[in-house]
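Aggregate trends can hide what the representation actually does to any particular protein. For completeness, the protein is quoted in full, as a sequence line and a line of structure tokens.
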Amino acid sequence: MSIEDIASGAESEANTSMNALERVQEGLELSQSISESAGRSKKMSDVTVKNLAESSGTVQALIQGIHLISESNEKMSQEATELKEHAASIDTIVDTVADIAEKTHMLALNANIEAARAGESGKALQWLPARYRSWLPKALSRLMLFGMMSVKCRTAWIKH
């Protein structure tokens, strides 16, 4: 082995070492770049987690609001049903009062006819038809009042 061979081997080893050193430096630079990217990724991940937590709170608030609206709608529906039932009850009362008013009118008419037929002896009963007729306006006014109450209940029910 000559000096030239040794020098050539040493130069080759030096080149190989230099190449290895360059590769190690490139590896270090790549490792540094990866570390920086990982740091940025962690920051972005932290921001994403924070945003998700805030969004979760907003979604929870929306769900609670929807539940409140649902409960309110259910209560309004129950109240509307009650109004409808009250209106039906009022209609029954109105029908009953109308029937009584009609019968009272017929009774007064019959009493008037009977008093007229009885002649002189029927004069003592002439106050009766007048009395029946005096009840009729009061019955009709109550009938109208109940009818208006029924309309108000139905109007309130329709609004709900």
